[in-house]
Write a structure and sequence with these properties.
Elements: E1 4-11, E2 17-25, H1 37-52, H2 54-57, E3 62-67, H3 69-73, E4 85-90, H4 97-108, E5 112-116, H5 125-128, E6 133-137, H6 147-154, E7 160-164
Parallel strand pairs: 2-3, 3-4, 4-5, 5-6, 6-7
Antiparallel strand pairs: 1-2
């Protein structure tokens, strides 16, 4: 049995390794396969936690793992210890009370939440109050278009901002 997982380094502003984003793969091809994302996350959790070992896979650093709306509602994050990873709530849906309540429950169980990627045209403010990390996809939302949002988010306590898809 072969296991494939991509591990993307996460660096801080001083270019120091602080975490790894774990990405599901099912072959040597370094791309997301045609698979339901909730199933992909389930397989990633099973492989990283039960076969390889999450801490071994991340060399003891935090892991960032993507959870789609349905995975959050199905309580997938609760399959992992809240100390070892960050729940990346994918923002590919219109915010709604049902998902907010599931995120709030995770927050109260001491899971660290992140929004990935931040989408300024929807009202994510209630979720931001639960999150410790907000990710901006620079390839989709250039920084100069979200400056006002960044200034608002920086006023929230204990929240960090992260830019992704930076190629240079």
């Amino acid at each position: 049995m072969k296991i494939y997982t991509a591990r993307q380094a996460v660096l801080n502003s001083k270019k120091r390794l602080v975490a790894y984003e774990l990405l599901f793969r099912n072959s040597r091809a370094n791309s997301f396969p045609e698979i339901d994302p909730v199933i992909a996350t389930s397989k990633l959790i099973a492989d990283s936690q039960f076969i390889i070992g999450l801490r071994r896979l991340t060399s003891g650093k935090k892991a960032l793992i993507k959870f789609h709306r349905q995975g959050v509602l199905q309580k997938q994050p609760e399959l992992l210890p809240n100390t070892d990873f960050i729940v990346e709530v994918m923002t590919d849906f219109i915010p709604n009370p049902e998902v907010y309540e599931a995120c709030r429950n995770l927050f109260h169980k001491n899971y660290t939440l992140a929004l990935d990627p931040f989408t300024p045209h929807f009202d994510w403010q209630p979720y931001c109050n639960l999150c410790r990390l907000v990710k901006f996809d620079i390839s989709r939302t250039p920084l100069n278009t979200v400056i006002a949002d960044i200034h608002k988010l920086k006023q929230l306590k204990n929240i960090k901002l992260m830019a992704t898809k930076i190629e240079t």
